[in-house]
Specification:
binds magnesium ion; Actin, Chain A, domain 4; 18 strands; Dna Ligase, domain 1; binds adenosine-5'-triphosphate; about 30% strand; about 400 residues; 5-stranded mixed beta sheet; 11 helices; alpha+beta; Nucleotidyltransferase, domain 5
Protein backbone atom coordinates (compact mmCIF):
# COMPACT_ATOMS: atom_id res chain seq x y z
CA UNK A 1 0.00 0.00 0.00
CA UNK A 2 1.13 3.57 -0.70
CA UNK A 3 2.17 5.85 2.17
CA UNK A 4 -0.55 7.93 3.90
CA UNK A 5 -0.79 11.41 2.29
CA UNK A 6 -0.25 14.35 4.67
CA UNK A 7 -3.66 15.95 4.15
CA UNK A 8 -5.52 13.08 5.81
CA UNK A 9 -6.61 12.77 9.42
CA UNK A 10 -7.61 9.63 11.33
CA UNK A 11 -9.56 9.32 14.57
CA UNK A 12 -10.07 6.22 16.71
CA UNK A 13 -12.89 5.71 19.22
CA UNK A 14 -12.35 2.55 21.28
CA UNK A 15 -15.79 2.20 22.87
CA UNK A 16 -17.14 -0.51 25.16
CA UNK A 17 -19.40 -1.78 22.37
CA UNK A 18 -17.72 -0.80 19.12
CA UNK A 19 -14.36 0.37 17.89
CA UNK A 20 -14.58 2.92 15.11
CA UNK A 21 -11.79 4.30 12.92
CA UNK A 22 -12.59 7.27 10.67
CA UNK A 23 -10.33 8.64 7.94
CA UNK A 24 -11.03 12.08 6.47
CA UNK A 25 -9.34 14.27 3.92
CA UNK A 26 -8.65 17.91 4.76
CA UNK A 27 -9.68 19.99 1.74
CA UNK A 28 -10.00 23.72 1.09
CA UNK A 29 -13.72 23.36 1.71
CA UNK A 30 -13.41 21.50 5.00
CA UNK A 31 -13.37 17.81 5.84
CA UNK A 32 -14.28 15.13 3.32
CA UNK A 33 -15.03 11.51 4.26
CA UNK A 34 -12.55 8.97 2.93
CA UNK A 35 -13.17 5.71 4.81
CA UNK A 36 -14.15 4.14 8.08
CA UNK A 37 -13.69 0.80 9.79
CA UNK A 38 -15.91 -0.72 12.46
CA UNK A 39 -15.42 -3.72 14.73
CA UNK A 40 -17.14 -5.05 17.83
CA UNK A 41 -15.03 -4.03 20.83
CA UNK A 42 -13.48 -6.91 22.69
CA UNK A 43 -11.28 -6.54 25.75
CA UNK A 44 -12.25 -2.96 26.68
CA UNK A 45 -14.87 -1.87 29.22
CA UNK A 46 -15.77 1.67 30.23
CA UNK A 47 -12.57 3.13 28.81
CA UNK A 48 -10.37 0.53 30.48
CA UNK A 49 -8.53 -2.31 28.75
CA UNK A 50 -9.42 -5.58 30.45
CA UNK A 51 -7.82 -7.93 27.90
CA UNK A 52 -4.99 -6.38 25.89
CA UNK A 53 -4.77 -9.05 23.17
CA UNK A 54 -8.50 -8.97 22.49
CA UNK A 55 -8.52 -5.16 22.46
CA UNK A 56 -5.58 -5.11 20.02
CA UNK A 57 -7.44 -7.64 17.83
CA UNK A 58 -10.59 -5.53 17.50
CA UNK A 59 -8.66 -2.28 16.99
CA UNK A 60 -6.62 -4.03 14.30
CA UNK A 61 -9.79 -5.23 12.59
CA UNK A 62 -11.31 -1.73 12.54
CA UNK A 63 -8.02 -0.20 11.35
CA UNK A 64 -7.66 -2.74 8.53
CA UNK A 65 -11.22 -2.12 7.37
CA UNK A 66 -10.56 1.63 7.30
CA UNK A 67 -7.26 1.07 5.47
CA UNK A 68 -9.01 -1.02 2.83
CA UNK A 69 -11.42 1.83 2.19
CA UNK A 70 -8.75 4.54 2.33
CA UNK A 71 -6.25 2.75 0.08
CA UNK A 72 -3.27 3.61 2.29
CA UNK A 73 -1.92 2.46 5.67
CA UNK A 74 -3.00 4.33 8.79
CA UNK A 75 0.12 5.34 10.67
CA UNK A 76 -1.09 8.05 13.08
CA UNK A 77 -4.38 8.99 14.68
CA UNK A 78 -6.04 10.95 17.43
CA UNK A 79 -7.65 8.89 20.15
CA UNK A 80 -10.80 9.46 22.21
CA UNK A 81 -10.52 8.98 26.00
CA UNK A 82 -13.59 8.37 28.18
CA UNK A 83 -14.79 6.27 31.09
CA UNK A 84 -15.10 6.35 34.84
CA UNK A 85 -11.42 7.16 35.42
CA UNK A 86 -11.86 10.65 33.89
CA UNK A 87 -12.46 13.60 36.26
CA UNK A 88 -13.04 17.31 35.75
CA UNK A 89 -12.43 20.18 38.21
CA UNK A 90 -12.49 23.96 37.99
CA UNK A 91 -9.31 25.71 39.02
CA UNK A 92 -7.56 29.02 38.43
CA UNK A 93 -4.11 30.51 38.08
CA UNK A 94 -2.47 33.78 37.26
CA UNK A 95 0.49 36.12 37.44
CA UNK A 96 1.36 39.73 38.29
CA UNK A 97 3.83 41.71 36.13
CA UNK A 98 6.08 44.50 37.42
CA UNK A 99 4.31 46.95 35.08
CA UNK A 100 1.44 46.76 32.56
CA UNK A 101 2.42 44.87 29.42
CA UNK A 102 0.92 43.48 26.25
CA UNK A 103 -0.40 39.96 26.78
CA UNK A 104 1.22 37.57 24.33
CA UNK A 105 0.96 33.82 23.84
CA UNK A 106 3.70 33.20 26.40
CA UNK A 107 1.85 35.09 29.13
CA UNK A 108 -1.38 33.21 28.38
CA UNK A 109 0.50 29.93 28.43
CA UNK A 110 2.16 30.71 31.75
CA UNK A 111 -1.12 31.79 33.37
CA UNK A 112 -2.87 28.62 32.23
CA UNK A 113 0.11 26.57 33.38
CA UNK A 114 -0.22 28.11 36.85
CA UNK A 115 -3.77 26.75 36.95
CA UNK A 116 -2.29 23.30 36.35
CA UNK A 117 -0.38 23.54 39.62
CA UNK A 118 -3.09 21.88 41.75
CA UNK A 119 -1.85 18.67 43.35
CA UNK A 120 -2.84 15.60 41.33
CA UNK A 121 -2.35 12.05 42.60
CA UNK A 122 0.75 10.55 40.96
CA UNK A 123 -1.31 8.10 38.92
CA UNK A 124 -3.25 10.84 37.12
CA UNK A 125 -2.39 13.08 34.19
CA UNK A 126 -3.91 16.26 32.79
CA UNK A 127 -5.85 15.61 29.61
CA UNK A 128 -7.12 19.15 29.01
CA UNK A 129 -6.77 22.61 30.50
CA UNK A 130 -9.74 24.47 29.09
CA UNK A 131 -9.76 28.23 29.69
CA UNK A 132 -13.16 29.54 30.79
CA UNK A 133 -12.42 33.22 31.20
CA UNK A 134 -9.50 35.53 31.73
CA UNK A 135 -9.31 38.36 34.23
CA UNK A 136 -7.11 41.34 33.27
CA UNK A 137 -6.44 43.54 36.31
CA UNK A 138 -10.00 43.98 37.60
CA UNK A 139 -11.75 43.24 34.32
CA UNK A 140 -13.37 39.79 34.31
CA UNK A 141 -15.10 37.90 31.51
CA UNK A 142 -12.36 38.31 28.86
CA UNK A 143 -12.47 35.46 26.34
CA UNK A 144 -9.22 36.05 24.48
CA UNK A 145 -6.70 38.43 26.07
CA UNK A 146 -4.13 38.19 23.24
CA UNK A 147 -2.78 41.68 22.46
CA UNK A 148 -4.48 43.39 25.44
CA UNK A 149 -2.58 45.37 28.11
CA UNK A 150 -2.62 44.42 31.82
CA UNK A 151 -0.46 44.29 34.93
CA UNK A 152 -2.25 41.20 36.26
CA UNK A 153 -3.47 38.22 34.26
CA UNK A 154 -5.62 35.51 35.78
CA UNK A 155 -7.46 32.63 34.19
CA UNK A 156 -10.19 30.26 35.29
CA UNK A 157 -9.74 26.83 33.82
CA UNK A 158 -11.66 23.56 33.61
CA UNK A 159 -9.08 20.83 34.09
CA UNK A 160 -9.85 17.32 32.89
CA UNK A 161 -7.60 14.54 34.15
CA UNK A 162 -7.45 10.82 33.50
CA UNK A 163 -5.82 7.81 35.12
CA UNK A 164 -2.41 7.56 33.46
CA UNK A 165 -2.43 3.77 33.31
CA UNK A 166 -5.95 3.56 31.83
CA UNK A 167 -5.11 6.06 29.08
CA UNK A 168 -1.70 4.51 28.47
CA UNK A 169 -3.20 1.03 28.12
CA UNK A 170 -5.57 2.17 25.37
CA UNK A 171 -2.64 3.92 23.65
CA UNK A 172 -0.57 0.74 23.96
CA UNK A 173 -3.38 -1.32 22.42
CA UNK A 174 -3.63 1.10 19.48
CA UNK A 175 0.18 1.16 19.12
CA UNK A 176 0.23 -2.63 18.99
CA UNK A 177 -2.32 -2.42 16.22
CA UNK A 178 0.35 -0.45 14.34
CA UNK A 179 -0.94 3.11 14.84
CA UNK A 180 0.90 5.97 16.57
CA UNK A 181 -1.24 8.31 18.70
CA UNK A 182 -0.70 12.04 18.09
CA UNK A 183 -3.20 13.33 20.61
CA UNK A 184 -5.76 12.18 23.19
CA UNK A 185 -9.10 13.95 23.60
CA UNK A 186 -11.86 13.59 26.22
CA UNK A 187 -14.63 12.20 24.04
CA UNK A 188 -17.56 14.49 24.95
CA UNK A 189 -15.33 17.49 24.24
CA UNK A 190 -14.80 16.18 20.72
CA UNK A 191 -18.42 15.12 20.40
CA UNK A 192 -19.53 18.64 21.32
CA UNK A 193 -17.78 19.78 18.13
CA UNK A 194 -20.00 17.71 15.92
CA UNK A 195 -23.38 18.15 17.61
CA UNK A 196 -23.74 21.38 19.61
CA UNK A 197 -24.95 24.61 18.09
CA UNK A 198 -23.31 27.97 18.78
CA UNK A 199 -26.40 29.35 20.55
CA UNK A 200 -26.59 26.27 22.83
CA UNK A 201 -22.94 26.69 23.81
CA UNK A 202 -23.46 30.32 24.69
CA UNK A 203 -26.66 29.81 26.64
CA UNK A 204 -25.42 26.76 28.59
CA UNK A 205 -25.90 23.17 27.51
CA UNK A 206 -25.14 19.68 28.79
CA UNK A 207 -23.91 17.02 26.40
CA UNK A 208 -24.47 13.48 27.70
CA UNK A 209 -23.00 10.62 25.68
CA UNK A 210 -24.90 7.48 26.65
CA UNK A 211 -22.44 4.79 25.56
CA UNK A 212 -22.49 1.10 26.27
CA UNK A 213 -20.54 1.15 29.54
CA UNK A 214 -21.01 4.67 30.92
CA UNK A 215 -22.50 8.10 30.30
CA UNK A 216 -19.91 10.81 29.73
CA UNK A 217 -21.07 14.33 30.54
CA UNK A 218 -19.80 17.79 29.58
CA UNK A 219 -21.43 21.14 30.37
CA UNK A 220 -20.58 24.10 28.17
CA UNK A 221 -21.50 27.58 29.31
CA UNK A 222 -20.67 30.89 27.65
CA UNK A 223 -18.78 28.91 25.04
CA UNK A 224 -16.39 27.21 27.51
CA UNK A 225 -16.27 23.87 29.33
CA UNK A 226 -17.74 24.38 32.81
CA UNK A 227 -18.19 20.86 34.20
CA UNK A 228 -17.47 17.27 33.23
CA UNK A 229 -18.42 13.96 34.81
CA UNK A 230 -18.76 10.28 34.04
CA UNK A 231 -21.85 8.40 35.27
CA UNK A 232 -21.54 4.64 35.73
CA UNK A 233 -24.63 3.71 33.69
CA UNK A 234 -24.72 3.04 29.94
CA UNK A 235 -26.82 1.09 27.45
CA UNK A 236 -25.35 -2.23 28.57
CA UNK A 237 -26.94 -1.81 32.01
CA UNK A 238 -30.35 -1.70 30.32
CA UNK A 239 -29.44 -4.88 28.45
CA UNK A 240 -28.25 -6.72 31.53
CA UNK A 241 -31.43 -5.71 33.41
CA UNK A 242 -33.44 -7.29 30.60
CA UNK A 243 -31.21 -10.36 30.58
CA UNK A 244 -31.79 -10.91 34.31
CA UNK A 245 -35.44 -9.82 34.34
CA UNK A 246 -36.47 -11.94 31.36
CA UNK A 247 -34.02 -14.76 32.13
CA UNK A 248 -32.52 -14.72 28.66
CA UNK A 249 -28.91 -14.61 27.35
CA UNK A 250 -27.35 -11.13 27.11
CA UNK A 251 -27.12 -11.29 23.31
CA UNK A 252 -30.87 -12.03 23.11
CA UNK A 253 -31.65 -9.28 25.63
CA UNK A 254 -29.69 -6.86 23.44
CA UNK A 255 -31.78 -7.84 20.38
CA UNK A 256 -35.04 -7.52 22.33
CA UNK A 257 -34.00 -4.10 23.64
CA UNK A 258 -33.25 -2.81 20.13
CA UNK A 259 -36.32 -4.35 18.48
CA UNK A 260 -39.01 -3.99 21.15
CA UNK A 261 -37.55 -1.76 23.85
CA UNK A 262 -39.26 1.42 25.02
CA UNK A 263 -38.46 3.33 28.18
CA UNK A 264 -42.10 4.40 28.62
CA UNK A 265 -44.31 1.48 29.58
CA UNK A 266 -47.56 3.27 28.69
CA UNK A 267 -46.40 3.82 25.09
CA UNK A 268 -46.33 0.05 24.53
CA UNK A 269 -49.70 -1.29 23.30
CA UNK A 270 -51.29 -3.69 25.78
CA UNK A 271 -51.52 -7.20 24.41
CA UNK A 272 -48.28 -7.06 22.34
CA UNK A 273 -46.12 -10.11 22.95
CA UNK A 274 -42.43 -10.78 22.42
CA UNK A 275 -40.75 -14.15 21.96
CA UNK A 276 -38.00 -14.51 24.57
CA UNK A 277 -35.38 -17.28 24.18
CA UNK A 278 -34.61 -19.03 27.47
CA UNK A 279 -31.26 -20.01 28.94
CA UNK A 280 -30.19 -23.64 28.88
CA UNK A 281 -32.30 -26.08 26.87
CA UNK A 282 -35.66 -24.67 27.89
CA UNK A 283 -37.99 -23.55 25.11
CA UNK A 284 -38.56 -19.88 24.38
CA UNK A 285 -41.55 -18.09 25.98
CA UNK A 286 -43.95 -15.35 25.00
CA UNK A 287 -43.71 -12.34 27.28
CA UNK A 288 -45.80 -9.16 27.22
CA UNK A 289 -43.90 -6.31 25.55
CA UNK A 290 -44.99 -4.08 28.43
CA UNK A 291 -42.83 -6.18 30.72
CA UNK A 292 -39.82 -5.16 28.62
CA UNK A 293 -40.77 -1.52 29.25
CA UNK A 294 -41.34 -2.20 32.95
CA UNK A 295 -37.73 -3.38 33.22
CA UNK A 296 -36.25 -0.53 31.13
CA UNK A 297 -38.15 2.44 32.57
CA UNK A 298 -36.70 2.35 36.14
CA UNK A 299 -33.16 2.15 34.75
CA UNK A 300 -33.82 5.19 32.54
CA UNK A 301 -35.18 7.10 35.55
CA UNK A 302 -32.15 6.08 37.62
CA UNK A 303 -29.77 7.35 34.91
CA UNK A 304 -31.45 10.74 34.61
CA UNK A 305 -31.89 11.18 38.37
CA UNK A 306 -28.16 10.52 38.63
CA UNK A 307 -27.49 13.10 35.91
CA UNK A 308 -29.82 15.63 37.55
CA UNK A 309 -28.17 15.13 40.96
CA UNK A 310 -24.69 15.37 39.46
CA UNK A 311 -25.51 18.64 37.69
CA UNK A 312 -27.27 20.05 40.75
CA UNK A 313 -24.39 19.13 43.05
CA UNK A 314 -21.96 20.91 40.70
CA UNK A 315 -24.24 23.97 40.60
CA UNK A 316 -24.79 23.36 36.89
CA UNK A 317 -28.44 22.35 36.63
CA UNK A 318 -29.69 25.90 36.24
CA UNK A 319 -26.74 26.76 34.00
CA UNK A 320 -28.01 24.38 31.32
CA UNK A 321 -30.66 26.75 30.00
CA UNK A 322 -30.42 25.25 26.50
CA UNK A 323 -31.07 21.83 28.02
CA UNK A 324 -29.44 18.46 27.47
CA UNK A 325 -28.25 16.94 24.20
CA UNK A 326 -27.89 13.16 24.12
CA UNK A 327 -25.39 11.31 21.93
CA UNK A 328 -24.21 7.69 21.99
CA UNK A 329 -26.01 4.53 20.92
CA UNK A 330 -27.77 4.27 24.28
CA UNK A 331 -29.71 7.45 23.47
CA UNK A 332 -31.51 5.60 20.67
CA UNK A 333 -33.76 3.66 23.01
CA UNK A 334 -37.30 4.85 22.16
CA UNK A 335 -38.86 6.85 24.98
CA UNK A 336 -35.50 7.50 26.65
CA UNK A 337 -35.41 11.22 26.06
CA UNK A 338 -39.05 11.55 27.14
CA UNK A 339 -38.00 10.16 30.51
CA UNK A 340 -35.06 12.59 30.47
CA UNK A 341 -37.52 15.40 29.83
CA UNK A 342 -39.75 14.41 32.74
CA UNK A 343 -36.86 13.92 35.22
CA UNK A 344 -34.65 16.85 34.22
CA UNK A 345 -37.43 19.30 33.25
CA UNK A 346 -35.19 20.80 30.57
CA UNK A 347 -35.32 20.92 26.78
CA UNK A 348 -33.84 17.63 25.50
CA UNK A 349 -32.84 16.39 22.07
CA UNK A 350 -30.90 13.59 20.44
CA UNK A 351 -27.60 14.58 18.85
CA UNK A 352 -27.61 13.79 15.18
CA UNK A 353 -24.05 14.53 14.04
CA UNK A 354 -23.56 17.19 11.37
CA UNK A 355 -22.53 15.18 8.27
CA UNK A 356 -19.22 15.82 6.52
CA UNK A 357 -18.92 15.74 2.71
CA UNK A 358 -19.41 12.30 1.09
CA UNK A 359 -20.13 10.66 4.46
CA UNK A 360 -22.25 7.51 4.19
CA UNK A 361 -25.66 7.93 5.83
CA UNK A 362 -24.89 5.00 8.18
CA UNK A 363 -22.51 7.31 10.11
CA UNK A 364 -25.25 9.86 10.73
CA UNK A 365 -26.30 8.19 14.00
CA UNK A 366 -25.73 9.43 17.57
CA UNK A 367 -23.15 6.69 18.30
CA UNK A 368 -20.84 8.13 15.62
CA UNK A 369 -21.03 11.72 16.91
CA UNK A 370 -17.87 11.14 18.96
CA UNK A 371 -15.64 9.87 16.16
CA UNK A 372 -16.92 12.63 13.86
CA UNK A 373 -16.19 15.15 16.60
CA UNK A 374 -12.69 13.70 17.02
CA UNK A 375 -11.78 14.46 13.39
CA UNK A 376 -13.30 17.96 13.67
CA UNK A 377 -11.28 18.56 16.85
CA UNK A 378 -8.11 17.17 15.22
CA UNK A 379 -8.62 19.41 12.22
CA UNK A 380 -9.02 22.50 14.41
CA UNK A 381 -5.94 21.64 16.47
CA UNK A 382 -3.94 21.05 13.28
CA UNK A 383 -4.99 24.40 11.80
CA UNK A 384 -4.06 26.13 15.06
CA UNK A 385 -0.68 24.41 14.98
CA UNK A 386 0.02 25.95 11.57
CA UNK A 387 2.21 28.68 13.01
CA UNK A 388 3.34 27.05 16.24
CA UNK A 389 4.60 23.57 16.69
CA UNK A 390 4.19 23.30 20.44
CA UNK A 391 1.59 20.59 21.04
CA UNK A 392 0.31 22.05 24.30
CA UNK A 393 -0.17 25.60 23.07
CA UNK A 394 -1.85 24.31 19.93
CA UNK A 395 -4.30 22.53 22.13
CA UNK A 396 -5.02 25.69 24.13
CA UNK A 397 -5.37 27.73 20.96
CA UNK A 398 -7.71 25.14 19.53
CA UNK A 399 -9.98 25.65 22.49
CA UNK A 400 -9.87 29.42 22.23
CA UNK A 401 -10.60 29.27 18.52
CA UNK A 402 -13.36 26.79 19.18
CA UNK A 403 -15.34 29.06 21.48
CA UNK A 404 -18.81 29.40 20.15
CA UNK A 405 -17.87 27.67 16.92
N1 LIG B 1 -31.59 1.18 18.61
C1 LIG B 1 -31.11 1.09 19.84
N2 LIG B 1 -31.94 1.04 20.89
C2 LIG B 1 -31.46 0.93 22.15
N3 LIG B 1 -30.16 0.87 22.46
C3 LIG B 1 -29.28 0.92 21.43
C4 LIG B 1 -29.70 1.03 20.08
N4 LIG B 1 -28.60 1.06 19.31
C5 LIG B 1 -27.53 0.97 20.13
N5 LIG B 1 -27.94 0.87 21.41
C6 LIG B 1 -27.09 0.72 22.61
O1 LIG B 1 -26.06 1.67 22.57
C7 LIG B 1 -24.90 1.17 23.24
C8 LIG B 1 -23.72 1.36 22.35
O2 LIG B 1 -23.55 2.74 22.16
P1 LIG B 1 -22.16 3.33 21.65
O3 LIG B 1 -21.80 2.71 20.34
O4 LIG B 1 -22.28 4.81 21.69
O5 LIG B 1 -21.18 2.79 22.79
P2 LIG B 1 -19.59 2.79 22.87
O6 LIG B 1 -19.09 4.09 22.35
O7 LIG B 1 -19.05 1.57 22.23
O8 LIG B 1 -19.41 2.66 24.44
P3 LIG B 1 -18.78 3.66 25.53
O9 LIG B 1 -18.96 5.05 25.00
O10 LIG B 1 -19.54 3.41 26.79
O11 LIG B 1 -17.36 3.24 25.65
C9 LIG B 1 -25.17 -0.31 23.52
O12 LIG B 1 -25.47 -0.47 24.89
C10 LIG B 1 -26.38 -0.60 22.63
O13 LIG B 1 -27.22 -1.58 23.21
MG1 LIG C 1 -18.67 5.93 23.15
Amino acid sequence: MAKAPANFLTAIDVGSAKTCVLVVEITENGLRYRAHGLADSKGSRKGIIVDLDKAVGSIQKAVERAEDGAGFPIERAILGVAGSHVRGINTHGGMVFSRPREIGRDEIRQAVDKARAVPLPPDREVLHLLPQEFMLDDQAGVHDPLGMIAARLEVRVHMISAATSATQNVITAVNRAGVHIDDTVFEPLACADSVLRADERELGVCLADVGAGSTNVLVIQEGAAAHSAVLPIGGDHFTSDLSVGLCTPVAEAEKIKKLFGNAIVTLIPEGNEVEVPSVGDRPSRLVSQRMVGEILEPRARELFEMLRDNLRHAGMLEACAAGVVFSGGGARLPGLIDIADSVLRKPVRIAWPVPIARMPSALGEPEFATVLGLVAYGHRARSARGTEDDRWSARLKAMLVGKGA
